[in-house]
Design goal:
Two copies of one chain form a homodimer. By secondary structure, chain A is mainly α. Chain A has nine helices and no strands. The longest helix of chain A is centred in the first third of the chain and has 25 residues. At the A-B interface, helix 1, helix 7 and helix 9 of A face helix 1, helix 7 and helix 9 of B.
């Protein structure tokens, strides 16, 4: 990335950096936890860490169809970590399976994002009709990725509460 | 905003929407709480809601100098909610004072953001030297605003844990 690149190319670079730095922090945090640690609740009676990790992975997997990058990679993950609450009577991924799914989802998502031209970034997402998009052109892929990135961050903020207290956070 | 706007103008619109929707949710959440509710901890032994709100406000106030919009509006807020942990031996704002500061900070920040041309959005932030910026042009205002937005979201994710449990979140 050079300062001489077009403004829109530099803004895409910013968005990708924001996404990547968020996803990398989340990866580093969860990948370092043992299966036992992943059973820990973020606060008494709240979600376990493994559920929160799966929830973020499942949200990201849902991005593929939403931004037109194809079907979800792990269709079963939605019932495990979105539709059902934590500790529902349903089998969920082991830590190892989840790590594998998480890696695949994020690698393929980033590859997809990186393949778009600036104009393609601003194409409509699939949950808005062509007609509505004419009136609401902000309902595009770029907006979706920024908004999902903040959503991902809000769940990560919850996850780190499971760790010993940092007096300032 | 029209689909016929330039790509970079549309991307700025996306970034502003992401910021605004995040700040609005946070405002709605905290402004609805009584002073007594703001004393609640987000989890046993963790920060009180008022501290977390102040922390987000103080981070946002720190954006003014960082992106070259002038000095902080409330210089004393940093010691109250960033430098010192919650329950330090230091006087902090009342709920009412904090609400007033929060409103001022966010209103003025958004006014500042809205006044930049696309090229101005991509100017360097003040924590990077002109020399380093030549090599690292991503260290600009746009990147800072995206990254602070995810940071703000991560603390909001923590704040909502103080509320009665949503079985899925």
């Amino acid at each position: 990335m050079q300062a001489s690149e077009s403004l829109e190319t530099r803004m895409i670079d910013s968005a990708l950096r924001a996404w990547r730095s968020n996803a990398d922090r989340i990866d580093k945090f969860f990948a370092a936890l043992s299966p036992e640690q992943l059973e820990q609740e973020i606060a008494p009676g709240r979600n376990r860490l493994i559920y929160l990790w799966g929830h973020i992975a499942a949200l990201n997997d849902g991005l593929f169809p939403l931004v037109g990058l194809g079907p979800r990679l792990y269709p079963e993950i939605e019932a495990m970590f979105i539709t059902n609450p934590d500790r529902a009577a349903i089998a969920i991924y082991s830590a190892e399976q989840l790590k594998q799914a998480w890696d695949q989802i994020n690698e393929k998502l980033l590859a997809g994002f990186s393949g778009w031209s600036p104009a393609e970034w601003l194409e409509r997402h699939t949950a808005v009709s062509a007609e509505d998009f004419l009136r609401e052109p902000h309902r595009n892929r770029y907006t979706v990725v920024l908004s999902r990135n903040t959503h991902m961050a809000s769940h990560f903020g919850q996850a780190i509460l499971a760790m010993p207290r940092d007096p300032k956070l």
